[in-house]
Amino acid sequence: MEKESIPSSPSSVDMPYPTHGVSSATTQGMTENNTGVWDYFSTYKLHSRSEKVFFKAHSLLSSHLFLISLLFGLFAFHILQWFVLAVIEDNFFAQQRFLMLDQSMLSLRGCFSSTIPAIISVIFYAGYFLVEIVCLILLFRTDHDTWFIRGETLLLMASQLFFIAIYVVINLVPYLKNVLEHVVPQGLVIITCSLLELFVSVFCPVVYAVLKDTKTPSNNDVFESELEMILNNKEAFELLLDFARRSFCTEGILVYKEIEQYKKTRNKKRKQKALYIVH
């Protein structure tokens, strides 16, 4: 969906600033300017039904409970799938196995697998790879990549394709499957891919954060801009808010105050606070 170009909101800079008294002409100008602001926000509503749906979906998908539940759910699904296939093969195909060559998957001894488990693994990988492509498209639609997530995703997808190609080649070539298996097990390819993913997506961001903290001054009184310094000073904040109130443009300052309160709110009340800020 293409982004709709929204004109800039009417400014109140040209409005005469009242010092001692307010004349009728000045009051009329303030009223007309304030009406223009409300007309602007009524035309481009920020609380439509679709935006509320997207907000709720984002809150759900970014919650820790959903991510942890999804992780354990997928893990339990794959364990259950492995167990069910092993039981079916042991009970109905014990003489002519279609997954293993000589031993059961439930056996603690080493065993050789057929080509079918590799095909099943590639099918599952193709499904997960489609999900990664969708997430990558959403990443490229974002404005800024502050944490280098796009680069990490591209690197991981390229490495996954490389290791999956090696895994398929090992399973399709009989010499590699029967001889190389005694030296380097084919399962080690998948384990190496998982270790690389952990290194890129977990270890590297931690290193980035440590390097950034070492370069950033530890003094909490040092802010990124003079405006942030004013907003974090209580007396200067009140003066700036009073000036903005006289100019009919307090929204930006008040929302900064609400966001700072949101950061200090407990996790149980953050949802209510976020909905209050949005509305």
From TrEMBL:
Q: Where are the transmembrane segments?
A: 65-88, 116-141, 153-176, 188-211
UniProt-listed InterPro entries: RGS, RGS_sf, RGS_subdomain_2
- Write down the PROSITE patterns for this protein, in alphabetical order: RGS (PS50132)
- Tell me the keywords, alphabetical order: Membrane, Transmembrane, Transmembrane helix
Q: What is the protein's species of origin?
A: Naegleria fowleri
Q: What is this protein called?
A: RGS domain-containing protein
Give the domain of life. Eukaryota
Ranges for domain RGS: 226-279
- Key word Transport present: no
